[in-house]
Design a protein that fits this description.
Layout: H1 2-6, H2 15-29, H3 32-40, H4 47-69, E1 75-77, H5 81-90, H6 97-116, H7 119-126, H8 129-150, E2 154-157, E3 161-164, H9 170-187, H10 193-205, H11 254-279, H12 291-308, E4 313-315, H13 320-324, H14 330-340, H15 347-350, H16 355-369, H17 381-396, H18 400-417, H19 426-441
Antiparallel strand pairs: 1-4, 2-3
Helix pairs in contact: 2-14, 3-4, 4-12, 4-14, 6-11, 6-12, 8-16, 8-17, 8-18, 9-10, 9-16, 10-16, 11-12, 17-18, 18-19
């Protein structure tokens, strides 16, 4: 049955190979089970409930990717998108998390419409590739900055705006050791290296507040940094259907819905293209295999995320780990999907992981996302300047939206003023109108 449905022989793979690939992809991606609740809990969402939502979304949508799109890609709440949800929408704009979840839902609906009616093709072609590379890299820098600030490695400084934290602090020392361990494991291509790094850093943090150092002195809110809360618990479904659908349709939130939808769209497409290139998963037209079905799955993941209570779901580039192990069919994603389910009952165990243990993972993920910056032609100032603005404004303004907006606007203006209007499509001008509107509405 598996042979017939997934055409294993046609793709020159076996059940054993697909199983190993599924386990490998899961180990490379499972850090999101801890990291996503750690980020969204800073927006006021309950840790255990976000963990349940993360597992459910990862299970259902990875399963859909495997069975419907038949691609060896895992789907889970996206890094960058969860940071945008927490730090830009909820904390930055002061929007209630229930309303932000509603915006996630409507972004998914918009993504679905764009996918069904193939409007996505026009939008994707409208966004210059250099800007896509810059935005992806800018989000990587943003995630890295969040990791550093969570660990108090980067702190506020009244004289210089930012500075390095107290290097004698036991928490910061533990973070740096954890970052070194994680970096070595990832550099040596150890499967599940990020997860091993999280576990190692958590273990190293156990003495803090017990045997040495006072964690409460640096506002971690408890004497001991790591506290045992038990092993098992029933899943927490308290975030289910907590989204505010009506409130999220206000005019002021249209830019947020837009940003969620299009950031997700760009992220998904870059993942599909990257994985297709790595594994030669192209169709007869030279496009990534089953691209329409894959994008529909991604759109469902974003819509479902709002209902379950988490940030938008997206295809994970870490799926390439399983593909390197020989995964070629949707069976890889199906196997990985089922590996998520047991963790729905482990929220007490996973809640012991402190923010300094997930911080190294954020820094490493940021490094992964910086790769596209090498594709930008920095010798062309008409392209380099807009890309620079998009790249640096995302972390500097603590807002993915601002980086995207000023990247689009500066590209359009520079290209027009230098007589290269052909590089600015009519669709991009329409997007610019929305961008200008969001600047006005947002202030």
């Amino acid at each position: 049955m598996l042979e017939r449905y997934f055409s294993l022989s046609h793709h020159q793979t076996t059940l054993r190979t697909e199983t190993i690939a599924g386990v490998s992809s899961f180990l490379a991606t499972m850090y999101i089970i801890v990291v996503n609740p750690a980020i969204l809990s800073q927006a006021g969402l309950p840790f255990g409930a976000v963990l349940t939502a993360t597992v459910l979304l990862s299970f259902f949508c990875s399963l859909m990717m495997g069975l419907y799109a038949k691609n060896p890609l895992l789907v889970a709440p996206g890094m960058g998108l969860n940071a945008f949800f927490t730090f830009t929408v909820v904390k930055g704009m002061g929007i209630a998390w229930q309303t932000a979840l509603g915006a996630v839902f409507w972004a998914g609906v918009l993504f679905l419409i764009l996918s069904i009616f193939n409007v996505r093709t026009h939008i994707v072609k409208a966004i210059p590739k250099p800007l896509r590379y810059a935005i992806s890299s800018g989000i990587g820098l943003f995630i890295t900055l969040i990791g550093f600030t969570n660990a108090k490695f980067i702190v506020g400084n009244p004289a210089t705006l930012v500075g390095i934290g107290n290097l004698k602090d036991p928490v910061l020392i533990t973070f740096l050791v954890g970052l070194l361990v994680t970096a070595v494991l990832v550099a040596k291509r150890v499967t599940g290296g990020i997860v091993i790094g999280i576990i190692t850093t958590t273990l190293l943090a156990i003495p803090i507040g017990r045997w040495w150092g006072d964690a409460s002195a640096i506002n971690f809110g408890q004497k001991a940094l790591v506290n045992w809360n038990g092993l098992l618990a029933s899943p927490d479904f308290s975030l289910l259907f907590q989204l505010d659908l009506g409130g999220s349709l206000s005019l002021a939130l249209f830019p947020v819905i837009f940003a969620f939808a299009f950031t997700d769209l760009f992220d998904s497409l870059s993942t599909f293209v990257g994985v297709a290139e790595a594994a030669d998963l192209y169709d007869e037209n030279g496009d990534p295999r089953h691209i329409k079905e894959s994008l529909l799955t991604d759109a469902v993941a974003t819509t479902l995320a709002g209902v379950l209570g988490t940030s938008p779901g997206t295809a994970y580039i870490e799926s390439a780990v399983g593909i390197e192990q020989g995964g070629r069919t949707g069976l890889t994603a199906v196997i990985a999907a089922f590996l998520f389910l047991p963790f729905m009952f482990l929220s007490p165990l996973l809640s012991v992981v402190p923010s300094i243990a997930t911080a190294p993972a954020l820094v490493i993920v940021g490094a992964f996302m910086m790769k596209p910056v090498t594709k930008i032609d920095w010798s062309r100032m008409d392209e380099a300047i807009p890309c620079l603005l998009a790249l640096v404004l995302i972390p500097f303004s603590y807002s993915i939206t601002q980086g995207i907006i000023f990247g689009f606007l500066s590209w359009s203006v520079l290209k027009t003023m230098t007589g290269q209007t052909k590089d600015v499509s009519p669709t991009l001008w329409i997007i610019n109108i929305f961008a200008i509107g969001s600047l006005i509405w947002g202030h």
